[in-house]
Amino acid sequence: MQKRTLGHSGLEVSTLGFGCMGLDFGYATKLSKAEGVALIGAAVERGVTFFDTAEVYGPFTNEEMVGEALRPVRDQVVIATKFGFDIDPATGSNLGSVNSRPDHIRAAVEGSLRRLGIETIDLLYQHRVDPAVPIEDVAGTVRDLIAEGKARHFGMSEPGEQTLRRAHAVQPVAAVQNEYSLWWRAPETNGILAACDELGIGFVPYSPLGKGFLTGAITAGTQVPAGDFRASTPRFAPEAIEKNQVFVALLQQVAAEKGATPAQVALAWLLARRPYIVPIPGTTKLHRLEENLAAADLVLGADELERIDRSAAALEVEGDRYAPAQMAMVGR
User: First vs last Cα of the chain: how many Å apart?
Assistant: First the structure.
């Protein structure tokens, strides 16, 4: 597995990371801790060095799984986690709101360090911007945590451009983690990628396969099961699934010509957008992990990239990427 550096931070990671959320959170299929530990270990064996989790995944259980899996190879990997949701420490219940007060950040970081079994978090993200707390206070708290050795780098997930710039002025942001894929290209037009170019910030696309849609595994007539967060997502309503098949068809056409899969083409397209982009696809299946990682070796030529862009520009996505409550938390 080749490596990439996240912007000017000096933080070197594998070209593709592993998004660990879906191992036991968010989707209908959930792995046991032993199964998740084994799959993370398989990713390490195949060259992945960048693993992404968060306190809210579970809450808490995902960090415990990641920590157990990576403990034997701690010095070989980069662990990213996130704070920013209001979680009851006594019950572990997600209270459904954001909280980036400095005291809450500190408590969250102590909990993450304990669950992960590490002394320092390599990349500490604010999971969602808290409009009630000045971003300068958030960045300043993370700056202090870095000085204390409890974190190495600061990241932000789903900030707006101006919020990102204000935070970066206080504590350099190593990476932005926003959704980005062939069917969600807002970072290209909302100023985020331009700011990353200018400021030397790495970009980590989450849901690079459109929450599984761009793999081609979800077809017209697919019923999203209960307990899967996509069931409440407008983009996964039955009529949207049917209309959005045009994106899969585009990927399938290119994949057939390249001897690849739609997922591999979707990831290779992202990798070609910027040299500092590191997607973090997730999966619960070993064969899907291997399929995704093979995308790092798939090269799309300039003519192929131009064709994908031109064809995708003529397509219209049906449905929002989140329900209204979740949409209200992004781009602030």
Answer: 35
Sequence-distant (6+) residues with CB within 8 A of 267 are 16, 208, 209, 279, 281, 292, 295, 296, 298
pLDDT digits (tens, 9 = 90+) for 282-295: 999 999 999 999 99
Cα distance between residue 256 and residue 165, in whole Å: 42
CB 125, CB 155: distance < 8 Å: yes
Whether this prediction's pTM lies above 0.70 is answered by yes
Q: Is 27 a catalytic residue?
A: no
Per-residue pLDDT, 230 = 96
- Mean residue pLDDT of the chain comes to 97
Among the residues of the chain, which ranges form H helices? Answer: 33-45, 61-70, 102-116, 135-147, 161-170, 192-199, 238-243, 245-258, 262-271, 286-294, 302-313, 324-327
Q: Which of 57, 125, 180, 206 is catalytic?
A: 57
Fill in the DSSP letter of residue 224. Answer: P
What's the rounded mean pLDDT across residues 39-57?
Answer: 98
Distances (CA, A) of 6 to 124, 165, 203, 274: 14, 17, 7, 11
pLDDT at 90 over 80: no
Query: Is residue 91 classed exposed, middle or buried when 0-12, 13-18 and 19+ CB atoms within 10 A define those classes?
Result: exposed
SS3 (DSSP) at 86: strand
Q: Between the CA of residue 314 and those of 159, 173, 269, 270, 307, what are the distances in Å?
A: 28, 34, 17, 18, 11
For residues 95-127, one letter each, b for 16 or more C-beta atoms within 10 angstroms of the residue's C-beta and e for the rest, the string is eeebbbeeebbbebbebbbebbebebbbbbbbb
Give the integer Cα–Cα distance in Å for 251 and 259: 12
Q: How far apart are CA 275 and CA 283, in angstroms?
A: 24
